[in-house]
Amino acid sequence: MARFLCPACGAEVPFRTADGVTTTCGSCGNLLIRKDLTLESLGKVATLADDLTPLQIGAVGKYRGSGFTVVGRSRVDWAEGTWNEWFVAFDSGETGWLAESQGNWAMLKEVPSSSAPKLDPKALRPGTSIAIGKYTFEVEDAREAWVAGIQGELPKVVRPGKKYFSVDLTVPAGEGGVATASIGFPDTGPEVYVGEWVDFPEFHFAGLRVLDGW
Amino acid sequence: MAGDLPPESGAPPASAPPPASKPSVRVFQCPGCGATLNIKAVGQTITVGCGSCGATLDTSREDVQLVEKGQVLKRRIDLPIGTRGQFEGSVFEILGVMGRHDEASGYAWKEYLLFNPYQGFRWLSEAGGQWSYVSPLKGVPKVDDSISFKTGMKPRAELGGRTFVHFQNSVGIVDFVIGEFYWRVRKGDKSKLADYVDPPDLLSCETNESERIWTRCTYLTPEAVGAAFRLPNPLPYAIGVAPNQPNPYLERWRGLRDTWFLFTIAILVLFVLHKIRSPHQELFEESLHYEPTATAAEKVVRLGPYEITGNGNFELDLHADLNNSYFDADVDLVNDSTGEAHDMQVGAEYWSGYDSDGSWSEGSTSGDDLETGIGPGTYHLVITPSAANGANTPTPVSYRLKGVRGVSVGSNFFLAWLILSVYPLFTFFRSSAFESERWSNSDYAPSDSGDGDDWSSDD
Question: How far apart are the C-alpha atoms of B138 and B161, rounded to whole Å?
Answer without folding.
Answer: 15
